[in-house]
Design a protein that fits this description.
Layout lengths: L6 H4 L3 E10 L9 E11 L5 E10 L10 H7 L13 H18 L4 E6 L2 H14 L7 E8 H9 L4 H7 L12 H21 L12
Parallel strand pairs: 1-4, 4-5
Antiparallel strand pairs: 1-2, 2-3
Length: 212
């Protein structure tokens, strides 16, 4: 009798968390983190991945943060708008860490790993914010990440998120792009599509190599 596949066995006990951030520039040490969203994944009885839980925060700039006008013009965030419902960075990062830690534990995984499109960028802002807010027990691995840009280049021949989604027949509304939650949702769908496609082609689970 075959055992039911578990998420923990797919990625070496890593718990994938799709992350997207919206920022006020490119420098994680000096520029404000303005929005963060996370989407977790679950595995069904056939071993296929699906987007699962969502966590989302609008964030007030940390004290002394730099805000580049070009970045704000690009993402359309009105930093001082009360309707954003923004919270302090400490509340956001501690809330995110607590929620992810709980879901990671429920999945019997040992560490969470950031999955993102151009992951080094998102990871740099997450790590900087965790350091600023003195989160003692971050669930995230400090340097391991899964980059959907590279995965999409391999599996779909595309590197831009919207183009990769189009190639995977995932609907993408350009008007909602550059919102952390929307981009994280689409990236989660793309990640699951690529992992499931690899499995359907026989790439997972790995079969033992035949001896010579």
């Amino acid at each position: 009798m075959l055992s039911t596949p578990e998420l923990r066995d797919r990625f070496r006990h890593y718990f994938p968390v799709i992350i997207d951030v919206e920022t006020a520039g490119f420098n994680a040490q000096t520029d404000a983190l303005l929005e963060i969203a996370a989407v977790t994944v679950r595995m069904d009885e056939a071993g296929m991945l699906h987007p699962d839980q969502e966590i989302h925060y609008h964030i007030n700039p940390f004290e002394g943060a730099n805000i580049e006008p070009a970045a704000i013009e690009f993402n359309g965030i009105k930093v001082d708008c009360a309707l954003r419902g923004a919270v302090d960075e400490t509340e956001a990062m501690k809330g995110l860490s607590k929620a992810i830690s709980k879901l990671q534990k429920a999945a019997n995984c040992q560490r969470s790993v950031i999955v993102a499109h151009n992951a080094s960028f998102d990871m740099s802002f997450v790590n900087a914010a965790l350091a600023r807010t003195n989160v003692k027990r971050s669930p995230f691995h400090p340097f391991v990440s899964f980059d959907t840009t590279s995965l999409a280049a391999l599996t779909l021949g595309q590197t831009v998120l919207v183009k990769a989604c189009e190639a995977a027949n995932i609907a993408f509304d350009q008007k909602q792009a550059h919102g952390a939650l929307y981009d994280a949702q689409r990236t989660a769908e793309l990640f699951c599509f690529m992992m499931n496609r690899y499995q359907s082609l026989g790439g997972w689970p790995l079969e033992p190599l035949e001896s010579d």
